[in-house]
Write a structure and sequence with these properties.
Layout (H helix, E strand, L loop, with lengths): L1 E5 L5 H10 L3 E5 L10 E4 L4 H10 L3 H9 L4 E4 L1 H6 E4 L10 E6 L10 E5 L9 E5 L4 E5 L4 E6 L2 E7 L2 E4 L10 H11 L1
Parallel strand pairs: 1-2, 1-3, 3-4, 4-12, 5-6
Antiparallel strand pairs: 6-9, 7-8, 10-11, 11-12
């Protein structure tokens, strides 16, 4: 199994480290050719407007969207959740538009409002999951077929739809590999 990591900006190294600890081969995705031979793709956290522009500049926006529509499993964290959404409140920024979601960017405030919390995510087992929110978004509305996996104070913070998994937080910044493992099970089919 080989997992691609969109390597235009953001927490690329951290996702790579988690996957290597799990014994998974990785490949940086910097151009459309890098999509060949991967079994899944991670869209790491970063700055969503910038990453959207870079997806266009490097000719990746349409190829990634097409791969997702054809069934490539994609896991988006923070910025990745925004890029996967069909609708972004108050923004026409570039996005993949693959998940039937409407998202709010920077929903918890600016950098000083970033926080960490232990949250219960039943699909990951009984132990709480340590979540790290940095200028985090959330899913305001989930359409048909979107399954919320973590809802906190009415905000959807983790969801999946078909071959897509989206987290408002940064699981790659913790030692807990359960969310990456869930994605890998999705990749394995």
């Amino acid at each position: 199994m080989k997992i691609g990591i969109l390597a235009l900006q953001g927490a690329v190294r951290e996702h790579r480290s988690v996957l290597h600890r799990l014994g998974v081969e990785t490949a940086d995705v910097l151009n459309p050719e890098d999509l060949q031979g991967i079994d899944g793709l991670i869209l790491p956290g970063g700055e969503s407007t910038t990453v959207g522009k870079l997806l266009v500049r490097y000719g990746l926006l349409q190829p990634v969207a097409e791969a997702g529509r054809r069934g490539l499993p994609i896991f988006g964290t923070c910025t990745g959740l925004i890029l996967l959404a069909k609708h972004i409140n108050g923004s026409e920024q570039h996005r993949l538009g693959l998940m039937d979601t409407q998202v709010e960017r920077n929903a918890f405030g600016r950098q000083p409002a970033s926080f960490e919390a232990d949250m219960s995510i039943p699909v990951l087992g009984d132990a709480p999951f340590h979540t790290v929110f940095i200028r985090a978004p959330y899913i305001e509305r989930a359409g048909r077929g979107v399954r919320p996996l973590l809802v906190h104070e009415g905000k959807i913070l983790l969801a999946e739809q078909d071959n897509f998994l989206a987290a408002a937080f940064h699981p790659e910044l913790t030692d807990d590999t359960r969310l990456h493992e869930r994605f890998l099970r999705k990749v394995a089919g």
